[in-house]
Amino acid sequence: MNILISNADPRPIYEQIYSQIRNAIVSGEAPAESPLPSIRSLAKDLRISVITTKRAYDELERDGYINTVAGKGCFVAAVNAEVLREHNLCEIEKRLSEIYELAKPIGLSHDEISEMYSLIEKE
C-alpha cells in the first residue's frame, strides 16, 4: 500500500491517510487480517508527526476498518460487505446533497447533472 500526502489537498494530513487506507481496504487491495505499517514507521516514511499518524489509525479503528493488537501492531479488520456498502451509500447521499445545493442557485437541471456524471464516468 502506497500512501501519498499532498500539500495541495485541502484536507488535513490525517484525513488523507485515513481515506487512502480506507479505500485500500474497501477495494480489497489490503485484505482482511493483513498488517498495516506501524504508526512510527509510517510517520517516518511520510515525514510527519507520529501524533498525526496515530489520529488516522484511531479514526480507522473507531470506524471498524482496523484492529490494534497490543504489542503486535495494527491489522485490517474483517469488514462486513453490507456495512461497507451502507457506509458508502451514506457518503454518496451526503455528496449528492452537496451537489444539489451547489446546482440549485445556478439552475442546473437534473439532465445537466446526469450528463456531467456520464462524462466523468467515461474518463
Instruction: Kindly provide the radius of gyration, computed on alpha-carbon positions and rounded to a whole number of angstroms.
Output: 18 Å
Largest sheet: 2 strands, antiparallel
Number of helices: 5
The overall pLDDT average reads 91
* Sequence of strands across the biggest β-sheet: 1-2
Order of helices and strands: HHHEEHH
Enumerate the spans where pLDDT stays under 50 for 5 or more consecutive residues.
Answer: none
Mass-distribution shape: elongated
- End-to-end distance: 24 Å
Share of β-strand residues: 5-15%
Q: Tell me the total number of β-strands.
A: 2
Helix content: 55-70%
Helix-and-strand structural type: mainly alpha
Topology:
Blueprint: H1 13-27, H2 39-46, H3 50-62, E1 66-69, E2 73-76, H4 81-103, H5 110-122
Antiparallel strand pairs: 1-2
Helix pairs in contact: 1-3, 2-3
